[in-house]
Design goal:
There is one protein chain. The chain is of the alpha+beta class. 20% of the residues lie in helices and 34% in strands. Strand 7 and strand 8 form a beta hairpin. The longest helix is centred in the N-terminal third of the chain and has 35 residues. The relative contact order is 0.09.
């Protein structure tokens, strides 16, 4: 009995050990089968079974949308080609997909189509081609600025010439000074004419010969003249700012009461100083204002009552303020000289000129920024340069340090309208400030 009991216990233990092993092998087999079918199984409960639903095939007829025949588009396909070096009008039209001997024969014989044989590399030509590869129309701007249009008319062609339609687009650009104003402007894609206008606009506050520093920033919103989508020139600066040595200067275009162009700061003060800081746009100062300078010719110490700017002979010299000519001729060691009397107690002198502008004569009136002469080396001079003097009540003052008078502010009755005009322009300048160094926007 004892042996039988021990045998029964062993049998129970053996059966209990075998059942989990069998169950484990079954689970392994199921996992392998699922893995082979690409199904991932997680958390399968022991002794669970998978009952697959029976497969059914379902067929359903879906209605098709009704077919509506549309009229074929008879309008030609327009494309723009750029004239490449060595192009003829034939090779250009072939590149545009034109296969039309009749059109080529017309273009060779029609006198009005002569401008098509005077195309310049890079010039845009708009070509319209029909479904059969025939020339439908052609448009190009001639060297004279007119638009020459060739269009199919029945079985032939007709040529017409008309003035180009111009539009004005506002371009917003900004830059950061690394070496020079022109270098930064070129990097930002700003035309030279705009750069010169920018320097003139802030020339009363910033001496672009002495004051520029690396890291100075500027932005300009200016007019770009467009013809057939192509820029053909620039116009006025509409808004601009210049940050120099941490100080920010602004300028917004406005029409004065007499209709003349004028620029004012955001506070309504005129950006136009009664005097420009420098009589030349860009040059290099070689000798400053001094009471005891060693004279380069006489080698003695004497007062130097002005500032010398070195520049190539023939460089234009401009009047720093509106004035009347009191001398236009030779004046001793000064050589060829122009002397101007300005409003109030001010006068200026420009010496060592190579020649004087034709309109500058004694008693003539000149405007600020007007060219009055050209750099030379006449009189007591060792090389081409301009000697510039600034006087108050006949007494010479340092033109780089003297406080310059400004033009009058906006009249009170126009300030509200000006501020409403300037507010959106200032927002655009703020946008340019964030992405300095690129051309950031253009709009009509």
């Amino acid at each position: 009995m004892q042996d039988d009991g021990r045998a029964g216990i062993l049998a129970q233990q053996h059966g209990a050990a075998v059942r989990p092993a069998r169950r484990l092998r079954a689970m392994h087999a199921l996992a392998i089968a699922l893995g082979l079918t690409g199904v991932a199984a997680f958390g399968i409960a022991p002794e669970s079974t998978l009952d697959l639903p029976p497969a059914r095939t379902v067929e359903r007829a879906l209605p098709l949308p009704p077919f509506v025949a549309s009229e074929p588009d008879a309008s030609p396909y327009w494309r723009e080609e750029r004239v490449q070096r060595g192009d003829t009008i034939g090779s250009l039209l072939a590149r545009a997909g034109v296969d039309d001997p009749r059109a080529m024969a017309f273009l060779r014989t029609d006198a009005a189509a002569r401008p098509l044989y005077q195309l310049r590399p890079g010039q845009p030509v708009r070509v319209a081609v029909d479904d059969e590869g025939r020339l439908a129309a052609l448009r190009v701007r001639s060297s004279g600025g007119d638009v020459v249009a060739v269009e199919r008319a029945g079985d032939g062609f007709a040529t017409a010439t008309a003035p180009a339609a111009e539009s004005v687009r506002l371009t917003l650009a900004s830059g950061t000074i690394a070496t020079s104003l022109f270098g930064a402007a070129d990097a930002a894609g700003i035309p030279d004419a705009v750069t010169m206008a920018l320097a003139e606009l802030f020339g009363g506050d910033i001496d672009f010969l002495q004051d520029l520093r690396r890291g100075d920033r500027f932005a300009a919103l200016y007019e770009t003249r467009m013809v057939d989508g192509e820029p053909v020139g620039t116009g006025r600066i509409v808004a601009a700012e210049f940050e120099n040595r941490g100080r920010r200067y602004t300028a917004f275009h406005w029409h004065d009461a007499d209709g003349r162009d004028a620029w004012y700061t955001s506070e309504g003060h005129s950006t136009r100083k009664a005097f420009l800081r420098s009589p030349m746009e860009f040059s290099r100062m070689t000798s400053g204002f001094s009471l005891a300078r060693l004279h380069p010719i006489f080698q003695t110490r004497r007062a130097h009552k002005g500032v010398d700017y070195a520049a190539p002979a023939g460089t234009p010299v401009r009047a720093t303020a509106d004035g009347v000519v009191t001398l236009a001729g030779t004046s001793g060691g000064y050589g060829l000289t122009v002397d101007l009397r300005h409003a109030g107690a001010y006068s200026t002198l420009y010496a060592h000129l190579s020649r004087i502008a034709p309109q500058v004569r004694n008693g003539a009136r000149v405007r600020q920024g007007e060219v009055i002469g050209y750099v030379g080396a006449t009189g007591w001079a060792t090389g081409p340069h301009l000697h510039y003097e600034f006087r108050v009540n006949g007494e010479a003052r340092n033109p780089l340090a003297v406080a310059l008078p400004t033009a009058g502010p906006l009249p009170p009755e126009t300030r509200a309208a000006f501020h409403a005009h300037a507010a959106p322009l200032e927002q655009q300048l703020a946008l340019a400030r964030e992405v300095a160094g690129t051309r950031v926007a253009a709009r009509d």
